[in-house]
Amino acid sequence: MSDVSVEVDGDFVATVEIQRPPNNHFDLALIRSLADAMETLDEDPACRAVVLCSEGRHFCAGADFSGPAQVTDGGGHLYDEAVRLFAARTPVVAAVQGAAIGGGLGLALAADLRVASPEARFAANFARLGFHHGFGLSVTLPAAVGQQRAMELLYTGRRVSGEEALRIGLCDRLAPAERLREEAHALAAEIAASAPLAVRSIRETLRGDLAARIRAATDREKAEQDRLHLTDDFREGVRATAERRTPRFEGR
């Protein structure tokens, strides 16, 4: 699997690592590889929990708008692969260092639980770029932080530190950067120590029709992203981000 490594240890914990440092931007191929990995681990009796992590400075900075990121091909759309991630059956703990920005926040919220470093920063920065959020955040962000907080984060696009993320529910535990993976693995090992049939049954009850809701949400999100990608505001948002300045939106 391109840019994704998988390793299963003796504690029934698999480590799935994204290997596109330093920013770990995603595209269709990467999300497809992650979904392939998760589906394979679902069938592996040696795996009862997964740690999702990334090599380099940042967990995931979302899509790379500096070039033509591939989000579709003849076989489907990036969000089709994202739905596969949500449909996987094994509990996932994300280890979040650096940035989980835009779609990278969506990827972090695809995990069941998140362990972050205090220096981590989370942001749903879509409105600051002039377009609609995606990756199922319409469903997952309100579930994590509540409807009102989700609206604030999506409308403003502001950054949230690791400490605030813990307070508001974006992450579940904090760990020093040098021990981040160790703590994420320890949490995954706690899950793996429980009865595996019971854990999967509980997870299915709690998540319910989550994958179907993500599919419906991403259909709407994709349509709005396609529409807003054609606006002057989107072009200005991308330029302003690249030039590290405040965007000057005109509503067109």
Report on the structure:
The protein has 252 residues and is of the alpha/beta class. It has a domain of 175 residues: 2-enoyl-CoA Hydratase, Chain A, domain 1, CATH 3.90.226.10. Helix content is 47%, strand content 16%. It contains 11 helices and 11 strands. The strands form 3 sheets. The protein has a 6-stranded mixed beta sheet, with helices on both faces. A hairpin with a 2-residue loop joins strand 4 and strand 5. Helix 5 packs across helix 10. The termini are far apart. The model has no long low-confidence stretch (mean pLDDT 95).
Helix content: 40-55%
The CATH homologous superfamily of the domain at 4-178? 2-enoyl-CoA Hydratase, Chain A, domain 1
| Multimeric state | single chain
Give the H and E element order: EEHEEEHEEHEEHHHEHEHHHH
* Main sheet record: 6 strands, mixed
CATH topology of the domain at 4-178: 2-enoyl-CoA Hydratase, Chain A, domain 1
Distance between the termini: 41 Å
Number of helices: 11
Looking at the structure, what is the overall shape?
globular
The CATH class label of the domain at 4-178 is Alpha Beta
